[in-house]
User: Which sequence fits this backbone?
C-alpha cells in the first residue's frame, strides 16, 4: 500500500473496534467492518484511535488488530500509535509499517503546556519514527493540549515526515484558515488537513480549505457525500446531505455515551455483532435507545425527501 503523503484527501474513517459481549475482540466483525467502510466509499481508514478503544487493549492486541485490518483493507490504513513514551510508540509504529500501514498518528502528551514543548515533542516524534510518515493529532478537547497555528507551521517546516494534520480544535475554523494562509504564501509546506469532531463542522471546514474528514460516524456515507459534493463544487448538495444526518451526528458527540450510540447503530446495521464496549465502558439506557430510534426514523424520512 502506498505511503501517506501531503496530497491525501477524502474520508479516512475512524474505525471502531468490535468486541464480543465478554470483551474479547470480535474478529468476524472486524472483517465485516472493513468491508462495510469500503462499500460506503471511504478513501482510507484510521484504527486504534481513542474511539477505537485503543487504551483498553494490550500491545499484542493492538498489533493483531492492525495486522488484520491492513491485510484485509483495499484502502490505505493509518494507525494510532500514541503512547506514554517514544519507545513503545516507535515499537508499534515499526510493527504496523511492516504490516503495510500507510502511516501513523500521534497525539501530544497531556503534560505539554507551552509552544516550545509542543514543538520539541513533535520534533522528537519525527526523529523516533525515522522515515515513517505521520499525522499530527490536534484534539485539545481530549488531550487538553492547545497547539497554535504558528507552532504547527514550525513543525511542518522542520519535520518533513509530518504530512497531515488531524484537525479537531473547537472552535477551529480560524485555525484552518490560518494554516492555509501560511502555505498559500509559501511560508510552509501545504500538508493534508482532515477534520474530526464527528463531522459536526465538515461543510464549513471544507470551505476553509480542509481536504476531507478523519472521524467516525455510524453513517460514513454522510461524510463521503459531503466531501465528494464539495470537491466537485456542489456546495448546496453537500449541505443538504449534511443537514439530513446532523441530528444523529450531534447525538453521537455526547461525552460518555457517544461511542455506545455509534456502536448501537453499527450493530443495528449489521456491521458488528455486538454494541458492547470493552470495560470500563457504558451502554445506552432504554431512553437513550428510544432517542436514537427516533433520530433514525426522522433521518430516513429526510433522506427520502432529498433523494439521498
Assistant:
Amino acid at each position: 500500500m502506498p505511503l501517506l503523503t501531503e496530497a491525501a484527501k477524502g474520508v479516512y474513517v475512524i474505525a471502531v473496534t468490535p468486541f464480543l459481549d465478554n470483551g474479547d475482540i470480535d474478529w468476524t466483525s472486524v472483517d465485516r467492518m472493513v468491508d462495510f467502510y469500503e462499500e460506503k466509499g471511504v478513501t482510507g481508514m484510521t484504527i486504534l484511535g481513542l474511539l477505537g478503544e485503543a487504551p483498553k487493549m494490550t500491545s499484542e492486541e493492538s498489533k493483531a488488530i492492525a495486522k488484520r485490518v491492513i491485510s484485509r483493507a483495499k484502502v490505505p490504513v493509518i494507525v494510532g500509535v500514541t503512547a506514554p513514551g517514544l519507545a513503545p510508540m516507535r515499537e508499534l509504529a515499526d510493527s504496523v509499517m511492516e504490516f503495510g500501514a500507510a502511516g501513523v498518528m500521534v497525539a501530544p502528551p497531556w503534560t505539554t503546556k507551552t509552544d516550545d514543548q509542543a514543538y520539541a515533542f513533535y520534533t522528537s516524534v519525527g526523529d523516533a519514527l525515522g522515515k515513517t510518515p505521520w499525522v499530527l493529532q490536534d484534539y485539545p478537547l481530549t488531550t487538553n493540549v492547545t497547539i497554535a497555528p504558528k507552532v504547527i507551521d514550525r513543525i511542518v517546516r522542520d519535520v518533513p515526515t509530518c504530512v497531515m494534520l488531524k484537525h479537531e480544535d473547537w472552535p477551529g475554523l480560524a485555525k484552518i484558515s490560518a494554516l492555509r494562509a501560511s502555505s498559500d504564501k509559501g511560508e510552509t509546506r501545504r500538508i493534508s488537513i482532515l477534520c474530526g469532531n464527528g463531522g459536526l463542522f465538515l461543510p464549513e471546514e471544507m470551505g476553509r480549505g480542509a481536504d476531507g474528514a478523519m472521524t467516525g460516524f455510524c453513517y460514513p456515507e454522510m461524510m463521503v457525500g459531503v466531501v465528494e459534493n464539495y470537491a466537485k463544487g456542489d456546495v448546496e448538495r453537500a449541505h443538504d446531505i449534511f443537514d439530513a444526518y446532523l441530528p444523529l451526528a450531534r447525538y453521537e458527540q455526547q461525552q460518555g455515551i457517544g461511542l455506545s450510540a455509534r456502536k448501537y447503530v453499527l450493530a443495528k446495521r449489521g456491521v458488528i455483532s455486538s454494541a458492547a464496549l470493552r470495560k470500563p465502558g457504558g451502554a445506552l439506557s432504554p431512553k437513550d435507545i428510544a432517542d436514537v430510534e427516533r433520530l433514525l426514523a426522522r433521518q430516513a424520512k429526510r433522506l427520502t425527501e432529498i433523494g439521498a
